[in-house]
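Section 5.1 Outputs to date
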Amino acid sequence: MADPISLDALKAQVGREPRFTRWFTLDQSRIDTFAEVTEDWQFIHCDPERAAAETPFGGTIAHGFLSLSMLSAMSYDTEPPLENIEMGINYGFNKVRFTSPVKVGANVRAKFITRAVEEKPNNGVLITRGVTIEIEGESRPALTAEWLGYMVLKGA
């Protein structure tokens, strides 16, 4: 995890250079674990033989929601926490698009760009980040999203 930054430093990130995470592998074990937790056992994710025979993917693919859920780990990998933070809350998404399947065993990473930082009442800060999950060796990303985080700073 990156070192904490000030609110002014966070505001200075708006529209600046993107930040990239390390690569994460979405192997069959991770896909199967996600399927177990979410009770989504669709064969395109969990049956390698059938997925190879009946889909254009040549094998299983990761759940789109698995790729999306990786954003939490990815954000810890590259996004610095705010100084003086009391808590952070996942506020949701303005937009999510799954643009390309992630084949089993693929490596993915996220690219984050801070789009907006808005101070809110009661020590709140709303952060809007553009996020792209890239697939190693592929020209199209797995997904694009606009992710909102709400931070509460400790009172003055």
